[in-house]
Amino acid sequence: MMGARETMSGRYGGSWARRLRNTLTAIAAGTVLNLAALLGAGMAFARGPVSVADIAEGLQEAVVNISTTQTIEGRDEGPPVRKGPKSSPFEEFFDDFFDEEGPDGKLRKVNSLGSGFVIDPSGLIVTNSHVIEGADEIIVNFTDGSKLKVVKILGHDPKTDLALLQVQPTKPLKAVSFGNSSVLRVGDWVMAIGNPFGLGGSLTVGVVSATKRDINAGPYDDFIQTDAAINRGNSGGPLFNMEGEVIGVNTAIISPTGGSIGIGFAVPSNTAVRVLNQLKEYGETRRGWLGVHVQNVTDEMASTLGLDAPQGALVASVTPDGPAANVGIKPRDVILDFGGQTIRSMRDLPRAVAAGTVGMDVPLKVLRDGEIVDVIVELGRLPKDEKDGPAPDERQGELLGLTIEPLTHALRDRFRISGKVEGVVVTGVAPGSPAAKKHIKVGDVIVEVTQEAVRQPDDVLARLRAVRKSGRRRILFLLADAEGELRFVAVPIG
What we know:
By secondary structure, the protein is an alpha+beta fold. The chain has 4 domains: 2-47; 49-285, Thrombin, subunit H (Beta Barrel), CATH 2.40.10; 288-390, PDZ domain (Pdz3 Domain), CATH 2.30.42; 402-492, PDZ domain (Pdz3 Domain, Roll). It has 11 helices and 28 strands. It has helices at 2-12, 14-47, 53-57, 129-132, 269-282, 299-305, 323-326, 348-354, 409-414, 434-437, 457-470, and strands spanning 63-73, 107-120, 124-127, 137-141, 147-149, 152-157, 162-166, 189-194, 202-213, 223-226, 238-240, 246-253, 264-268, 288-289, 292-296, 313-318, 334-338, 341-342, 361-368, 371-378, 380-381, 389-390, 402-406, 424-429, 445-449, 452-453, 474-480, 486-492. It has a 7-stranded antiparallel sheet with strand order 5-4-1-2-3-7-6. Strands 15, 16, 17, 18, 19, 20 and 22 form a 7-stranded mixed sheet that branches. The protein has a 6-stranded antiparallel beta barrel with strand order 8-9-10-13-12-11. β27 (474-480) and β28 (486-492) form a beta hairpin. The chain is globular, with a radius of gyration of 28 Å. The termini are far apart.
C-alpha cells in the first residue's frame, strides 16, 4: 500500500494526491453519515412506534372480558368432550377455555372466556358469535373489577362471527369508535387488546400483514391479517389503528400449536359496522340476494368465454324465480361488475351482493356470448336456507363434506405444512357434514384411506367408492396436522 501511495505521489504530484485524499476522505465521511442516517431510520422503523401507552390508556377501559356458562348433557363414560359452538365456521381456529363438572357425567357446566368491547356508553358490547353461542349466562367483566350481566343478546351472525350484547350500567361506560378499514395498508401498525388465556387487559402490537384475506371460513371471507399476537381468549376483542379506532374484530388464528405464530385474522370494521347496525335495528342480518351460484373463470375457460384473461364470476346455476332469473341471467354468463364494483374473481361477488341493500336496483355488467350486456336487477333478501356463493363441488357430498386438493407447494406454504407430510390437503369442510362432525379441519392432510396411501383427490374418491360398495358403514382416515402429528378418524358414510 505504501508503494502504491508513493507511486501516485511521484507520478501525479504531491498536491494532487493530497487533494484526492481529502476528497475521498470527505466522500467517505459523507457516506458514513448517510449510512448512519439510513441505519438510524431503519432501526427506528424496526422498533415501530416509540410507545403506544398513551393510546392504550384511553382504550383499555372499553375492552372487556366475556365469561359464559352453559349447561350441557354429559356422557356416562369416557373423558369429557369439548363444548363449543359446532355451527361456527371459526371453530377450528379458536378453542375457548372451559371447565366441566357434574355428577356421574349427566349434566356439566361449561365455562368459556373471550373478549369484547363497548361501542356505546349505554351498554352495547361487541364480541364474537361463537363466544356466546348456546350460553345460559353471559357476564361482562370490566378492567376496574366490576361485572355486569348481559340482559339481552340483541343479535348474532354466525356467518361473520359477530354478536351484539346489551348490559344495563348504572353510569355511562367508556366506549370506543370504529375507524375505516378500507384505508388500511399492508405495513400499518395495529394493536390488539383482549383476554388471552384469561389474562385480561393484555395488549400486543404488530402490523397489517394482508387485507381481503380468504381463509375458507365462509362465503364472506374478507379478513385483515395481522402479526399482532392473538391467542385463545382474544376472540371478540378489538384490533386498533394508531388513532385508537377499532378497525377490526379479532376472530381467528391459524396455528399448528394453538398459540400465536403471527397469523391472526380480524373482521374488518366496515363489515362489522354494517352487520352490527342490522343486528341493532332488526335483531338479525338482512343480506342482499342475487340467486346465483358462481365459480372462478380458469385460464382454460377464459378464451372460450371471450376473455383475454381470467376475471369475473362465472354463473354455474341460477335459482328459479330469484332476482337474477327474473332479469334473464343464465348459466355461462360472466358477471364482471356489480353496482360499480369490479368483480375480479368469484369470491368478490358474494361479498358485494351481501353488502347490498335489499330492494335496491343494482346495475350489472355481464359477459354473454362474447358481448357485454348491461342488466338492472332488484336485489332480493337472502333467505335463511339459501346463499349466493360458490357453486357446490359436485364431489363434496360424495367426499363426506370435504373439499380436497393435491398438496402443492403453494398449499404447503399457505397452511405451513411440514415437508415430511405427504397426502391430500383439506381446503374446505361443509358445516354439519360427516367430516365436520368428526372435527376434520381445513389444513388437515389425508395421508391414508383404509390403510392405503393417497396422493390425489381421485385416490380418496376411489377408496370411498370401494368402501361404499363393500357395504361398510364407516371409513378410516389417517390424518396429519401441519407438524406431521398423526391421528385416525373413522367417519360414517351412511
